Amino acid sequence: MSAATKEVKRITTHVLRNMKEQGEKISMLTAYDFSMARILDEAGIEVLLVGDSASNVMAGHETTLPITLDQMIYHAQSVIRGVKRSFVVVDLPFGTYQGNEMKALDSAIRIMKESGAHAVKLEGGEEILPAVKKILSAGIPVMGHLGLTPQSIYKFGTYTVRAKEVDEATKLKEDAKLLDATGCFGIVLEKIPAALAKEVTESIDVPTIGIGAGPHTDGQVLVTHDLIGLTKDFKPRFLRRYLDLYSTIRDAAQQYMADVKRNDFPNDREQY
Q1: Three-state SS at 90
Q2: β-pairing, 26-30 with 47-50?
């Protein structure tokens, strides 16, 4: 079978579970548009997260709270069009699931039907279990998210490391087991001590995906805009920048401007 006709094996929740069992790390990155999704899918990234971080890096908001369900669906639709292999998870935005399991179900159904995405992600533990159960009852895969939960930033008042104290660490471990037992296919652990993330990862059956949670989780996730250096001011300890596209794009734009002003663009080869 030629490379052109070879069937692409899609990533599924079953594949992710097997990866944990076999000790193979899972790679996850954010995507918000068709072009980036196509690149990341071709690169072989297993999971693409249509994150509510689009509120920050795409729309310029200070927090993730302002982004709407309609906007998340738009971004998810764009990402799905660029994907052949990756498993696409979409964040349920703030206000679309908290405290109302029927609203949570309606929100999740809209995402699945209107975007074609493969799963949704919710922030929180025991307090959102009714919403998780209701969504799962409709056959929709759910990913959990514990530790630093950005939708609760005004409750926390800071983006500092979570679960450093015994009480909060104990609750996080209990919440992880609850989400696992309820049927979530995976859990993001954000900005918690590495030792705690290791303990949680070893105590549950489903994959954990870390961000600022050390090397012992079953996989890692970063915001792609941070990884490739499109954002220049965000510099947390856990971030490794693989490119500096902010400077590269700025320099290219300045070179283009200079070429235009001295009438060097377009040249003889660049006209009809």
Answers
A1: strand
A2: parallel
CA distances from 199 to 17, 121, 215 (A): 18, 22, 12
Render 137-173 in DSSP notation, one character per residue: HTT--EEEEEES-GGGHHHH-S-SPP--SHHHHHHHH
The 3-class secondary structure across 101-132, one letter per residue, is: HHHHHHHHHHHHHHHCCCEEECCECHHHHHHH
The lowest-confidence range among 9-23, 96-110, 186-200, 227-241 is 227-241
Residue 80 in contact with residue 88, Cβ under 8 Å? yes
pLDDT in tens, 64-94: 999 999 999 999 999 999 999 999 999 999 9
**Element counts in the chain: helices (H) and strands (E):** 11, 8
φ/ψ of residue 231, rounded to 5: -95, 135
| 8 A C-beta contact, residue 136 and residue 119 | no
Contact in structure between 152 and 125 (CB atoms under 8 Å)? no
Q: Quickly tell me which residue has 């310029």 as its tokens.
A: 60
Catalytic sites, residue numbers = 190
pTM, to two decimals: 0.94
Tokens standing for residue 7:
């069937």
Q: CA torsion sign, 19 to 21 to 23 to 25?
A: positive
DSSP per-residue string spanning 231-259: --S---TT---S--HHHHHHHHHHHHHHH
Cα–Cα–Cα angle for 199, 200, 206, nearest 5°? 135
